Amino acid sequence: MMAKGYTLIELMVVVAIIGIISAIAYPSYQSYTCDTFIGQGIADMKVCALGMERFYSNDFTYVGATIGDVCSAVSPTQGTKKFDLTLSTLTQTNFVVTATPVGSCGTTMTLDAAGTLTVAP
Questions:
Q1: Who has the most CB within 10 Å: 10, 13, 113, 119?
Q2: Checking DSSP bridges between strand 83-88 and strand 96-101, what pairing results, if any?
Q3: Phi then psi for 88, rounded to 5 degrees?
Q4: Beta bridge partners of 118
Q5: What is the DSSP string of 11-64?
Q6: Is 117:110 a contact under the CB 8 Å cutoff?
């Protein structure tokens, strides 16, 4: 009677193939999730910019606005935060919303009253 099953060599080849595929796929997955978080950060900055425009339509100035009044201070608004959102350069006619990354994923981004998005290198 013949024994049925796999040899140790066959199992080790399968483990090696899975390891190689994982080594290629995991960095790609991390890059994909990072791009998603950056996109969410940009969307949240635009929501803050809309809140600043609502503030301006009531007071005809951006001075006095706070991040808590116009939008959420973190991005995303639910789950683990990836960016801290802050307001800076508040003048009568201009503001800057800054998204600072919390972890290693992403880079500092700014959005001003004119709609100019700047991504730091």
A1: 113
A2: antiparallel
A3: -145, 170
A4: 110
A5: HHHHHHHHHHHHHHHHHHHHHHHHHHHHHHHHHHHHHHHHHHHHHHHHHSS-TT
A6: yes
Rounding to the nearest 10 degrees, give the CA dihedral for residues 71, 119, 35, 97.
0
In a 3-state reduction of DSSP, which class is residue 69?
Answer: helix
> Between the CA of residue 104 and those of 17, 28, 30, 100, what are the distances in Å?
29, 15, 11, 11
In tens, the pLDDT along 92-110 reads 999 999 999 998 888 999 9
- Residue 118's H or E segment, with its range, is strand 117-119
DSSP 7: -
Report pLDDT digits (tens) over 50-96.
Answer: 999 999 999 999 999 999 999 988 888 888 899 999 998 899 999 99
Q: Which residue carries 């950060």 as its tokens? A: 41
Q: What angle do CA 101, 81, 121 make, to 5 degrees?
A: 15
Count how many residues are written for the chain. Answer: 121
Residue in the block written with tokens 């900055």? 45
Rg (CA), the chain: 24
